[in-house]
């Protein structure tokens, strides 16, 4: 029997996670009263039970009973009832934005501001997050990307290191990404902008990629860059970081930064331990600017 307790910050994607698990064949129950969780688990944890995998959605809507969750989970451990906690999280500013877009009120905000409700919720969920086996930060995730990560964990059975990496190319003339954890400047590399036939292309095109990488300086930099990232990621994980944004910048965000971001992505995507995606923030912007 596999029991997944799905919880986390309101607005971080719990409903999406439950829907995905349901589609994957899990028996799903949302907002089951806390006191009934052990009984529910016992009914599943018997020989020849109808369902061998289930998911429970638990959140602060449980009211005062939510305070009993830590005690309930401890009781389940003592009874040797197996369970895993999936915790969905997101940055406070992202959660506020999501609430504004949906025009919903936060369950703990009452008549006050959304950010106050979020702060209260974080305090209430602190114990659960510390005991979660899987923590997914959905701040930069699309719904399909969240589904992909959940599929890796709960369908494909791949190892998950509780960190989601975004590799982001950008142009310095459009500003450094505010949420970047690491910023790498590659403006020292040969610039395809000054080659007429390469100017309208991007680092996603082979001629530009070959031009940028066809020199010892670029190859040596990429090797050192990869070595640094390999060192940093495990240490970020040890520090409890669940979302990592690696930003690579050049002047316009179209040629050199795109090329190096793609090279780093190709290296990291083969490491199944990490959730990863790539974004090229400024390719469209730079193309529009040049067309004017």
UniProtKB/TrEMBL annotation:
Listed GO MF terms: ATP binding; GTP binding
Residue ranges of domain RapZ-like N-terminal in the record: 1-154
Keyword Repeat listed: no
Chain ranges of the RapZ C-terminal domain: 164-283
Binding sites annotated in the UniProt record for GTP: 59-62
Keywords (A to Z) from UniProt: ATP-binding, GTP-binding, Nucleotide-binding
Source taxon at top rank: Bacteria
A Pfam family the protein falls into: PapZ_C
Chain positions recorded as ATP binding sites: 8-15
Record HAMAP family: RapZ_like
PANTHER family xrefs: RNASE ADAPTER PROTEIN RAPZ
Protein name, per record: UPF0042 nucleotide-binding protein
């Amino acid at each position: 029997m596999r029991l997944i307790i799905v919880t986390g910050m309101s607005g971080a994607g719990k409903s999406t996670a439950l829907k995905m698990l349901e589609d994957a064949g899990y028996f799903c129950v949302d907002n089951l009263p806390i006191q009934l969780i052990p009984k529910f688990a016992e009914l599943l944890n018997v020989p020849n039970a109808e369902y061998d995998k289930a998911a429970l959605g638990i959140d602060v809507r449980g009211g005062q009973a939510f305070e009993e969750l830590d005690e309930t989970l401890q009781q389940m451990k003592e009874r040797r009832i197996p369970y895993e906690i999936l915790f969905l999280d997101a940055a406070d500013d992202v959660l506020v934005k999501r609430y504004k877009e949906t025009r919903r009120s936060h369950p703990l905000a009452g008549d006050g501001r959304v950010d106050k409700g979020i702060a209260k919720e974080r305090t209430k969920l602190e114990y659960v997050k510390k005991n979660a086996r899987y923590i997914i930060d959905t701040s930069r995730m699309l719904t399909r990307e969240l589904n992909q990560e959940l599929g890796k964990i709960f369908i494909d059975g791949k190892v998950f290191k509780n960190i989601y990496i975004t590799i982001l190319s950008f142009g310095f003339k459009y500003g450094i990404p505010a949420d970047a954890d690491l910023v790498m400047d590659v403006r020292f590399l040969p610039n395809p902008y000054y080659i007429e036939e390469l100017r309208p292309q991007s680092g996603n095109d082979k001629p530009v990629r070959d031009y940028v990488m066809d020199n010892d300086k670029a190859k040596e930099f990429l090797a050192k860059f990869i070595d640094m990232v390999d060192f940093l990621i495990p240490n970020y994980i040890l520090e409890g970081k669940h979302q990592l944004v690696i930003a690579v910048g050049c002047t316009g965000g179209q040629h050199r930064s795109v090329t190096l971001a793609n090279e780093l992505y190709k290296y990291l995507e083969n490491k199944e331990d990490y959730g990863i995606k790539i974004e090229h923030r400024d390719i469209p912007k730079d193309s529009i600017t040049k067309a004017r």
